[in-house]
Structure formats: structure tokens, C-alpha cells
Design brief:
With 252 residues, the protein is α/β, with parallel strands linked by helices. The chain is built from twelve helices and eight strands. The structure holds 1,3-dihydroxyacetonephosphate.
């Protein structure tokens, strides 16, 4: 059975106090209301990871980072290593979000190194992929997403690959209010799974969790999560409201 996951990507939002308030609300609601076996993950800014992690200890909610560096330690001013994240109880790391690819020039090659570093430390990478609107309109979206997967993940051993979570986030749906239709999302998720099967075999591909991200909200989560190849969501805007995030979590 594939793991169901709903991860909130807070992006660059919330001070420490605001983050703690949001996380306590989410944790309380998850404890009281969530009866399914979906894993909730809060991917907070670095400054809140430790405190939110402490708050979430012993609860069903896990904590994740939104990025990390691939090097272990040293003269890399401003960067955070995976062992630092591990030392404060972080379990997940979002890698390759389109905002990091666009604003911080992260390449598939750099992301391959980051994925390897995260896996080596025993954390779970949530690897993001997704096309622009122009690529979709040209009909090259499937090839583009497949190349992101090939270049950043296909160097992994089967053993390591099995620990990776994938998030398909069409760039044109991120923060725009335009969600991919369930048909568009399901089609891409199926293509991704087929591509994974071509490298790691059908059994491994069938066990890989593939999340959808891009304007996922309480009113569309249910139809998206009902699709055969969609195993949850990576949630931006709606993860900043506890009620919305938990309603999405309950949408399976
Ligand atoms: P929105 O849910 O705000 O569209 O953001 C999606 C996203 O980028 C999650 O990583």
C-alpha cells in the first residue's frame, strides 16, 4: 500500500510565534479529527523547525524542511546541512521546488546531489517536478517532467529510490488558483509512474507515493485524491490555515 501524505509547504511565511500558533492548531485538529492513515507533514521555514518539531513530538504530525544543502559541513555561508536537520528531528525535506529552481537556479544535477545527501542521512526527500504553461501548450510537458526525474533520481539504487516521495506541481497551477483538472493531474501522475517503472520496475513504481501540488484546496482535494495515481498533496497557500489544511488531510 502506498503511503498517503499531505505536506504543507509554508514557503517564506510565518514568524516563530505565528508558526507555533499555526502548528498547535493543526496538531490539535489532527489529533481530534483525522481518522484516516494519511501522514501530515508541516514543512516550515528553518527558524521554526526545531520548535514546531518539539510541539509535534509524540503527535501524528511530522516536520519537514523546504530545502537543504548537499554538503556535510564547512564554509558554505548561509546554508543548512542534512545532519543539522536530522539533529533537530526533521523527517522530510522538500527538494527541487519550482521556486528554488527559478529564483535560486537549482539544476537537476544539484538536486541529484541533494537527494543523495538527504537519503544518506535517513531523511525522506519530497522531490518536486512540474512543467511551465508554455511547455504544456507545446505538448512537451511529459518529456520535460520525465527528464527532471531521470536527471535527479535515476542515479539512485533501487533501495534508495524506494524512500523517495515525488510531488508533481505544474508551475502554472502554483499560487494561481488554477488547479490542474483531475484528468490532467491523473494523466501526469500515471505517466510519472510509468517512467519510474521503466527504470525501477512496476512493483517499485506502484509503491512510490506521488503527491499533487498547485492550488490544492479543501474544495478540490477530494476529487484529486480519488484519482488512482494521486497519493496526496503538497499544499502551499491552504496550508497556512489550519482548518483548510486539516480538511485537505481528511479528503481521502
Ligand atoms: P499553492 O497551493 O499555493 O498553489 O502552492 C503549491 C506549492 O507550491 C506547494 O509546494
Amino acid at each position: 500500500m502506498r503511503k498517503k501524505i499531505v505536506a504543507g509547504n509554508w514557503k517564506m511565511n510565518k514568524t516563530l510565534d505565528e508558526g507555533l500558533a499555526l502548528a498547535s492548531e493543526v496538531i490539535a485538529m489532527v489529533k481530534a479529527e483525522v481518522k484516516n492513515n494519511a501522514q501530515a507533514v508541516l514543512c516550515t521555514p528553518f527558524i521554526s523547525l526545531y520548535s514546531v518539531g518539539k510541539l509535534a513530538e509524540g503527535s501524528p504530525v511530522a516536520v519537514g524542511a523546504q530545502n537543504c544543502y548537499d554538503k556535510e559541513s564547512g564554509a558554505y555561508t548561509g546554508e543548512i546541512s542534512v545532519s543539522m536537520l536530522k539533529s533537530i528531528g526533521t523527517k522530510y525535506v522538500i527538494l527541487g521546488h519550482s521556486e528554488r529552481r527559478e529564483y535560486f537556479a537549482e539544476t537537476n544535477a544539484l538536486l541529484a546531489a541533494k537527494v543523495t545527501a538527504v537519503l544518506k542521512a535517513g531523511l525522506t526527500p519530497i522531490f518536486c517536478c512540474g512543467e511551465t504553461l508554455a511547455q504544456r501548450e507545446k505538448g512537451i510537458h511529459i518529456d520535460f517532467v520525465n527528464s527532471q526525474l531521470t536527471e535527479s533520481l535515476f542515479l539512485l539504487s533501487e533501495e534508495d529510490f524506494k524512500k523517495v516521495v515525488i510531488a508533481y506541481e505544474p508551475i502554472w497551477a502554483i499560487g494561481t488558483g488554477v488547479t490542474a483538472s483531475k484528468e490532467q493531474a491523473q494523466e501526469m501522475h500515471e505517466k510519472i509512474r510509468t517512467h519510474l517503472a521503466s527504470k525501477y520496475g512496476k512493483a517499485v513504481a506502484e509503491e512510490t507515493s506521488i503527491l499533487y501540488g498547485g492550488s490544492c484546496k479543501p474544495d478540490n482535494a477530494q476529487e484529486l485524491f480519488a484519482c488512482k495515481d494521486i497519493d496526496g498533496g503538497l499544499i502551499g497557500g491552504a496550508s497556512l490555515k489550519a482548518r483548510d489544511f486539516v480538511d485537505i488531510l481528511k479528503s481521502f
